[in-house]
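pls design
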């Protein structure tokens, strides 16, 4: 493990924590095309809040000529001395839910420009089986002029970062690893093993590691779709879904999933990657796509339930004031990527209601840029005809809801976390 110099390409929710961890033991160059992000990190601050400013500053270096530590840059020349390249860029879907590999292509082109003989390129982005070797490697070969598995090598180690989770941090999550040859697999595994305290699992091939990651999230998506369907059924029967799940959960092998909105950069996206690949092989994945359709429909369902409760309370719908609590894709983190709260908002607005969005974690300028939705970090003081708790931020649990509601206003708890009496919940 001597003479290792690592480049981490993409310094977002996945790349920065990994770069910080590697930097405790190796010289690391953190690269991102976003100049504002680089300036922020060079000043010792992380707006994603995945690592503390103190933790970032403890490894931060001012020059690329380092023995250990992290130097952040958007200049490609600083990558030339690296021999391990770890690519951690997003893998989104387009408006038709088809995989968009553009970030992977672009980052592969960047690495290809500085690739040398003996270098190893490791991909962490979630993809369908075959992307690394069939889509990314040809880009590396074309740009670098080098030959795969002769001049340079590849690995795949899927990210398992859980945004906002301060307990299951990167070093505490077991890492799946793989390499383009058995020998490279061992090298990749040893690299991660040197910093991941939870240990590693060396998969036999890159395709196996790619498939393992994409089914992790697909499995969660299907399980959540099942309980979301249960919630729809039990609501019609006037049965408390959460009470049912609590009772069923007393059996040792019952899986503890809860209904809700399924967004984010992984669970709401990755099943489409697997489905796309399956269809290329002539198989139509019925269960995977059925789960996606059901989960994608939950925003419309929640909005309809809220409107129905308001009608039952004789609340005039047009111009009714509704407070939506939370717009991030999950609790206690600022990540708004692929949040499905926007579906709830869009459907409520379609009824002519007046929406206010309050989220103490989300950056209002980012929300406006991504979704053209105005939001605030400050709790409004006027009264509302309805409040929809859509994200279970801890700060929301201390709100005096009665003081924010009109006399016959309704409180809808999407997440099932409020202890006080609510008018409806999933």
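designed seq:
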């Amino acid at each position: 493990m001597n003479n290792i110099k690592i480049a981490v390409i993409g310094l977002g929710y996945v790349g920065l924590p990994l770069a910080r961890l590697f930097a405790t033991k190796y010289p690391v160059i953190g690269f991102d095309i976003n100049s504002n992000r680089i300036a922020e990190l060079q000043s010792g601050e992380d707006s994603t809040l995945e690592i503390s400013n103190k933790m970032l500053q403890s490894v931060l270096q001012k020059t690329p000529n380092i023995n250990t530590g992290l130097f952040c840059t958007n200049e490609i020349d600083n990558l030339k001395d690296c021999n391990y390249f770890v690519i951690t860029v997003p893998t989104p879907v387009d408006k038709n839910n088809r995989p968009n590999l553009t970030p992977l292509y672009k980052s592969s082109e960047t690495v290809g420009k500085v690739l040398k003989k003996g270098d190893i390129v490791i991909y962490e982005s979630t993809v369908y089986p075959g992307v690394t070797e069939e889509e990314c490697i040809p880009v590396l070969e074309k740009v670098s002029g080098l030959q795969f598995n002769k001049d340079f090598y590849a690995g795949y180690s899927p990210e398992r970062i859980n945004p906002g989770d301060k307990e299951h941090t990167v070093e505490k999550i077991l890492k799946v690893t793989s390499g383009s040859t058995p020998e490279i697999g061992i090298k990749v595994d040893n690299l991660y093993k040197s910093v991941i305290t939870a240990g590693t699992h060396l998969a036999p091939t890159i395709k196996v590691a790619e498939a393992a990651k994409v089914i992790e999230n697909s499995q969660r998506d299907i399980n959540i779709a099942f309980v979301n369907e249960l919630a729809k059924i039990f609501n019609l029967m006037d049965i408390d879904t959460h009470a049912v799940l609590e009772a069923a959960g007393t059996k040792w092998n019952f899986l503890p999933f809860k209904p809700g909105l399924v967004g984010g950069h992984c669970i709401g996206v990755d099943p489409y990657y697997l489905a796309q690949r399956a269809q290329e092989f002539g198989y139509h994945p019925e269960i995977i796509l059925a789960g996606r359709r059901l989960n994608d429909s939950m925003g419309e369902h929640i909005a309809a339930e809220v409107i129905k409760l308001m009608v039952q309370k004789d609340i005039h719908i047009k111009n009714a004031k509704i407070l939506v609590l939370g717009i991030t894709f999950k609790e206690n983190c600022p990540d708004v990527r692929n949040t499905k709260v926007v579906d709830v908002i869009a459907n409520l607005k379609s009824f002519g209601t007046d929406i206010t969005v309050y989220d103490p974690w989300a950056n209002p300028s980012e929300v406006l840029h991504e979704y053209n939705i105005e939001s605030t970090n400050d709790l409004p003081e006027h009264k509302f005809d309805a409040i929809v708790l859509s994200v279970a931020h801890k700060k929301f649990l201390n709100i005096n809801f009665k003081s924010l509601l009109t006399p016959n206003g309704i409180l809808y708890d999407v997440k099932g976390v409020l202890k006080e009496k609510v008018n409806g919940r999933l």
